[in-house]
Design brief:
This protein is an alpha+beta fold and 396 residues long. It has 3 domains: 117 residues; 72 residues, no CATH class; 197 residues, Orthogonal Bundle (Tetracycline Repressor, domain 2). Helices cover 34% and strands 18% of the residues. It contains 12 helices and 16 strands. The chain has a 4-stranded mixed sheet with strand order 2-6-5-4. A 3-stranded antiparallel sheet has the order 1-3-7. Strands 10-16-15 form a 3-stranded antiparallel sheet, with no helix packed on it. Strand 12 and strand 13 form a beta hairpin. Helix 5 crosses helix 9, helix 9 packs across helix 11 and helix 10 packs across helix 11. The longest helix has 19 residues. The protein is elongated, with a radius of gyration of 26 Å.
Length: 396
Amino acid sequence: MSMRKLYHGSPALFDHFEMNGAGGGTGIKFDYGVYLTEVEESAVHYSQPRKMDFAPKHYLYTVEIPELVEGEYLVSALPVNEEIVAKVEKKMGTKVPEKMKEKGLEFRKWIGKTLTGTKMKTDEEKLAAEMKAAELLESVGVHYNVWPQAQTVPDGPKNIAVFNPERVKIVKVEEIEIEDRRGKWVRVSRNGANAYSVVAFIYKNYREYWGIQSYPAHKCANFCSTDEKWGIFGNFAAAPLVVDGYSFKHSEELFQMMKFKDENVLSNLKNGISRTGKSCHNIKKCAKSYEKDHRREDWGEMIVDAIKFCLQTKYEQCPKFRQELMWTQKLGLYIVEDQTSFSKQADAWGAKLKGNEFVGPNVLGRLLMELRDNGKLEYKLPDDAFDFIKTLKSIS
């Protein structure tokens, strides 16, 4: 089956499309459905919600849908295919007024008004009518509504509303940076190793850990600060580790060092010096300053295996960590990295408290539970994964 490549922009991270948020984004001006576009820049612009001055995250989805086939889609500004008209008339048991056949937009609205008995004056009436129209059209084999991105260029790039979200296949997800340029949100170019986020790395290389999870809060061992209950699960918790004869303060230091090969970078990290030459004793922040230009090119392909190695080493060398993991098992608790206090939405590693549940990817928590339940994390690292330790040993 031939497929068509399209884009979707959103401030939300998800692994499949649903219709429960329809009407809450750009509204239903063009139809009830999953909004897709042939123009990447347009998707980037709509990753920024209109009702917010900012969005914590911005995601660009590259997707595919089955190629458009005549008789299976409407075009908003063009006459309706006769085959579609016949199917709708048979389904509804009534004739479509001739004027409503002249444009797909009016045809769709007529269906919605007829099925709901409303005049589509309020947003609620519009949404209800568009839902009914989409359901009926999908039931007779009409899957899409198509409109030109620029009405003045009807044969130019298209936007498409897909009535059934199951027809949309997510091919790639990128976390992007955007900025406002004269009222238009555009992508900020990011070159080099930092072009993709942790989220995109996991989607591409570790699909088994992809997706949003939810856990009842009262059954969670949630951790944030290392000096609070369950704080030993945090990577910054004081749990010295030794790898190949070299000592690390905690698993976070080990994990951050694994990102680099460059001797100068490793020397600066060891001595707490950021890329700007300032003193920086937070290893995570310090490492981040070097990532754009110096991170291993294959980091995205090994990131989860690297954290698995760090957690496994901590499990083998830190009795308290091991004991606390076993205690959560006895209590029947889920383990969650609690990012509720973060100003941004939960990143790939953690989850946030929403009502009575923790919701988010929670990759770190999932790995901790996997380690707890199995006593071992399977990982595979490149042959040169530990060359950085030799470099660290050689630095005075």
